[in-house]
Amino acid sequence: MKLKNFQKTFFMSIFKKEGAAFVWSFLYFFSLLTAYFILRPIRDAMGIAGGTGSLAYLFSYTFIVMLAVMPIYGALVAHFPRRKLIPYIYSFFILNLLLFWVFFSNKIMMDLTAKVFFVWLSVFNVFVVSIFWSFMIDIFKASDSKKLFGLIASGGTIGSILGPITVTLLIDRVGTESLLLISATILLFSIVCVLRLTSLRKDNLPDMKNVQLNLDNNKAIGGSILAGFTEILKSRYLMGISALVFLLSLTATFAYFQQSSLIYNGYSDTAERVKVFALIERYVSIGALIFQIFISGPVMIKYGVKAGIILLPIITVLGFVLLAISPTIGIFIIFQTIRRASEYGMFSPARENLFSIVSREQKYKAKNFIDTAIFRGGDVINGWIYTGLNAGMGLSIAVVSMIGVPLALIWGILAWKLGKTHESKNN
Fold first, then answer.
1. Whole-structure pTM over 0.85, yes or no?
2. Among 424, 378, 425, which Cα is nearest to 245's?
């Protein structure tokens, strides 16, 4: 009864204070991830079209492109206010999708196009999601973010359910290339949400705060284009978050390579692989939605951010132990579903909360550097580590999983310490 009353009070407090902003933020993340998850099964199938041996190279290419893009992003942040910056970036990605549609429709250099699409979508995903959370951290107070971020993330999860369903329902009818146009149209709605949220924050604040927000909306963040990197070097707290993200990348990369190997060996047809990848995404999204609606917000309000970021490392330890004992596709799908559901449903909202106590420039630049260069750099390093262990040394999935256990334990200890630091600085 107490839990029911707590949840009722929890939800009422959200809609009373931040109803409109919550709804538009929810729709923003919903449209963003619906667009992405229509594309993700296509990317995963393209990535293994020539065999799993090319994945480590594709991860490396992604990191190189990310490094090339980072200074450009830093320059854009330094010169454009956020009300223009975010729509400009999303419009650029929409134009990219239209170009891919032309190549896919006309079967132009498909081997190369498939690889480029894999790299492009990996960059797209990190940038658009990182920018989304930077925007959320910027427009919501730290006290409200604990309540709201799990529920806002549920909008993205519903999108991640709808995206794969759209793929499975339409791919046989309209073909892969038409799915790109559908994704581009949905991404366009994200721009509408950004503009509406900017307007809401301007219209709904008292006069003095309104003046300051107008200045924030119309003023570029400024600073050096390399400030994302230099700000991290100045802060032990940001360096700790960087290590947290690197270890997340390590465990996620190990799991992704295991998934790709099992599906590649189990299914020979590309369309079948797309459907299997989409099915896994659907299971993950349903689990994440349960976390976001019923667990994330109440847990973080009652026990703090540390409780939100410690669960995923614990699940990862247990999952790797199970795979070491029984490395089958059934066990893996169960592990991957629970692991990624808790990542999207608990870990991600909690991790984003870690940035609520840093400066505005760090929210947009240091955070984006961590989410892109460090995360994708981790993908590259960890991808080659996995390739070396599996293909180079001939270690089985079971043995590699056992190696992942102590790494996940270290990750968990670091997550707990960062959560405690956040609480001490936020009080």
1. no
2. 378
